[in-house]
Amino acid sequence: MSASATEVVRRILSSHPKKSISDPTLAPAGVFLLIYNKSGEYCVLLNKRTQQVEHHKGEISFPGGTKDPEDETLLQTALRETHEEMGILPEHVELLGELDDVPSSTSFLISTYVGAIPYPYEFKPSEIEVAEVLEVPI
What we know:
Elements: H1 3-14, E1 27-38, E2 41-49, E3 60-61, E4 64-66, H2 74-86, E5 94-98, E6 102-103, E7 108-116, E8 130-137
Parallel strand pairs: 1-7
Antiparallel strand pairs: 1-2, 1-4, 2-3, 2-8, 5-7, 6-7
């Protein structure tokens, strides 16, 4: 993604402070909405989950998951899970901002981070977690 495009996204996100939700009955989760310029067209990275995962079998999702005890923050959760699911190294993600917290119908509290990755990128999807990598044009 070009520097000017990432700066536009960063500026938009920073002008709308994140609305946080506090609900101890929901399991905290961190996900990444990743964008990148693929041959002149901006895309969002999604994945289709396998039937082998515990939650959300066969659903389309952002890379991410539930906070582990060793994760100090939900950003660390999102980075760790993105690496585990898609093979994207945390140091290759440029953090652009955050979206509002969203409760899910399955009792998760989802914190979404927005980031950019370089392209081309050699995704290495987890065979256990990812049935298909989806590059969706914006």
